[in-house]
Amino acid sequence: MSYSVAIDGPAGAGKSTIAKEIAKKAGFIYVDTGAMYRALALWFLRQGIRAEETEKIEEAITRADVTIVYEEGVQQVLLNGENVTPCLRTEEVGNMASASSVNPSVRLKLVELQRKLAATADVIMDGRDIGTYVLPDADVKVYLTASSACRAKRRFEELKEKDALGDKTLESIRADIEERDYRDMHRDFAPLRQAEDAVLVDSSDMTIPEVVDVVLGMIRK
C-alpha cells in the first residue's frame, strides 16, 4: 500500500528543501516535477517537434511515460524505460520545457504520471496544488508558508551567497514574491490555496530541521 505526502505553499517557503530532507529520512521518493517536465521536453525534441506545434505535442505525449526511481540514493528519471537523467540539463531541453509547459495537455499528462507514481510508491511531492488537485487523497497534507518578509530575506541571503544579487534589493525581492503569490492564488486553473484537510505550518521562526521534524511527526505508516 503506497503512502503519499503533499506539501503546498507559496514561493520561497522552503517546500523543496523540506520535501527532499523528508524523502531521505522516511525513504520516500521525492517527485521532482521539474525533471519530469524536462523529460517530456526531451521526448518532444527527439520527435522533432517544436513547442508551438500543439497537435503534434498532444499526440506525442500519448506515447510518453516518465517516472522517477532512486538508485543508491540518487534520483534517476526514466523516459519510456530509458534513464535520461544525464540529458536533462542542457539549455535546449530547458528552453523546450519552459516553452512546452504552457500547453495544458502537457500539464494534464504529468498529473496523470504523478498520480500513477503515487499509486505504486511512497512519494512526497511539493508545489502549489498537490493536495488540492494532483493528490487530493494524500495521506498527509501540509501547507507550508512563511511571511513574505521572511521569504524575501531567505531569498536575498541565498542570492548574496551565490554572488547573484545583481541589482536586486531586499525590497524588490519581497515585491516580486508578493506579486507571484497573487498570481498563484488567483489563476483560473488549480490556484494556490490551503486544502481543507491540510496542516498549516508557518516556518517564519523555524529552522529547517524543526520543520522536517514536525512533518515527519505527521507521517504514520
- What is the total number of structural domains? 2
CATH superfamily caption of the largest domain: P-loop containing nucleotide triphosphate hydrolases
Instruction: Tell me which CATH architecture of the largest domain applies here.
Output: 3-Layer(aba) Sandwich
Order of helices and strands: EHEHHEEEHHEHEHHEH
Average predicted local confidence, pLDDT = 93
Instruction: Tell me about the largest β-sheet.
Output: 5 strands, parallel
Counting DSSP E segments of at least 2 residues, the number of strands comes to 8
Calculate the terminal CA-CA distance, rounded to whole Å.
10 Å
Low-pLDDT stretches: none
CATH top-level class of the largest domain: Alpha Beta
How large is the count of helical segments? Answer: 9
Q: Helicity range of the residues?
A: 40-55%
Q: What's the gyration radius in Å?
A: 18 Å
Shape: globular
Strand order of the largest sheet: 2-6-1-7-8
Proportion of beta-strand residues: 15-25%
CATH topology of the largest domain: Rossmann fold
